[in-house]
Design goal:
Largest sheet: 8 strands, antiparallel, barrel
Number of strands: 9
Order of helices and strands: HHHHHHHHHHHHEEEEEEEEEH
Length: about 425
């Protein structure tokens, strides 16, 4: 069929295959192997992701994937102990096992397959890969632009000794304090992700995300963040997407040579697919862009809500079982400081600088405070309280002891430099 200026370009009357005939030149053996490797790698990851729901599938997934990773982590990286799962060495072992499995699958596939090219299959695979990376990064970006991934700097983090913070707590404190920086990184994630929704801008989006995700993945490994493996997979996905334009990028950026435009068209093959795509794509793009931003706004509102007792309180007087307890550093049961934070959190800092976190429920009518530790019914502490001129007075029981505590509220800006001019 020949197109004329009067004929509309619609799925019914327009065939991309007819307008842009694809050459059926065979791929090189290296190109075929590379595609089979990448395809096997991501299909494995997505299968693991789909199985990671429910106790039964999760147990099956653990049986199938954990033994080789555990063996490699312990043998090659000498990683052992109860905290090895999720560690940086564990994540590296996960990647190496995934690469090994993908290499084996690609090798067997290459030895048994007779097909000389995978243009149609690559087109569908790259479409799924683009949209998957874009949707995931839109979520992360949206929850950083309207900063809710990292809570505002918590009072219990400020009040406790610096050395008691975990690596993840240190990073979360830094990002929670640097809200502008967190939003800036979110803009980079969202901008790169948005460009991936369109074939013509895929390379630009992939290059932006390579820069962003390199930083994210490195932070995850260095500060022991649980999503090390996911960030590595996302980074590899963006490298794969950019690699499809590797020759043109090398010519333009390194060799200072002109490059010809790339044909990014893809023939879906069926007219009804074009109709579905025309309807479905705007919904996906708008939903993936606006959904995380909208959700983040509501999460942020709840995070910054300040409770009436919000603040840090020093313990001026601590009476245990009727006896005044001196503030000795050797007394592991005497309170040193109490913090009322956002989101119903309360932390008690003891004389030996250990900290215990609680969820608090305040009944201002009955003037009662209920503390719960890890939602344990056997550790429920109820106190009555009085409001003093410069603080609070608590009366109740902590564990097996009756306690009467006089608390003096600190001036946050005077006591903590990080909170000045905030």
């Amino acid at each position: 069929m020949t197109l004329t200026p009067t004929q509309p370009r619609t799925p019914a009357s327009y065939s991309p295959r007819a307008a842009r005939p694809e050459t059926m030149d065979e791929w090189t053996p290296l190109e075929r192997f590379a595609f089979r490797f990448v395809f096997a790698y991501f299909v494995k990851f997505w299968a693991e992701f789909l199985l990671d729901v429910g106790n039964g599938p999760r147990a099956l997934l653990k049986v199938l994937t954990e033994p080789p990773v555990r063996w490699l982590a312990s043998t090659a990286f000498h990683a052992s102990g109860p905290d090895v799962v999720g560690s940086a060495r564990w994540a590296i072992a996960q990647q190496l096992v995934a690469f090994t499995i993908a290499t084996i699958v690609a090798t067997v596939w290459s030895l048994s397959a007779q097909r000389l090219e995978y243009r149609r299959m690559r087109g569908w695979f790259f479409t799924v890969l683009r949209y998957w990376v874009a949707c995931v990064m839109m979520v992360y970006g949206g929850f950083k632009i309207v900063e809710s991934q990292f809570p505002p700097l918590a009072l219990d983090q400020i009040a406790r000794p610096f050395g008691s913070l975990s690596p993840m707590g240190l990073l979360w404190a830094f990002m929670g304090y640097s809200t502008f920086y967190a939003s800036f990184t979110g803009l980079g994630e969202a901008a790169g992700a948005f460009l991936l929704f369109f074939r013509r801008t895929t390379t630009a989006g992939a290059l932006i995300l390579i820069a962003v995700l390199s930083n994210v993945a490195l932070l995850n490994y260095v500060f022991d963040i649980p999503v090390k493996y996911l960030s590595s997979v996302l980074l590899f996905a963006t490298v794969v997407l950019a690699a499809s334009d590797a020759k043109r990028l090398v010519a333009m950026l390194l060799l200072n040579q002109p490059t010809a435009p790339k044909d990014v068209s893809f023939d879906f093959g069926k007219a009804w697919i074009y109709k579905v795509r025309r309807f479905l794509k705007p919904i996906i793009v708008v939903g993936a862009t606006c959904g995380p931003l909208t959700a983040s706004i509501f999460v942020r509102q709840s995070m910054v809500r300040t409770p009436s007792m919000f603040g840090v309180y020093d313990i001026d007087r601590f009476v245990r079982n009727g006896e005044v307890t001196a503030p000795l550093a050797t007394d592991q049961a005497r309170w040193r400081q109490l913090t009322f934070g956002r989101g119903g959190t309360v932390s008690i800092r003891f004389m030996n600088d250990s900290v215990r976190l609680f969820k608090a429920k305040v009944d201002s009518t009955a003037r009662r405070i209920s503390l719960r530790f890890n939602d344990r019914a056997d550790f429920a502490q109820d106190y009555t309280y009085e409001t003093l001129t410069d603080g609070l007075a608590l009366h109740g029981r902590y564990g097996a002891d009756s306690v009467d505590v006089t608390l003096r509220k600190l001036d946050l800006e005077r006591s903590f430099r990080l909170l000045r001019n905030r």
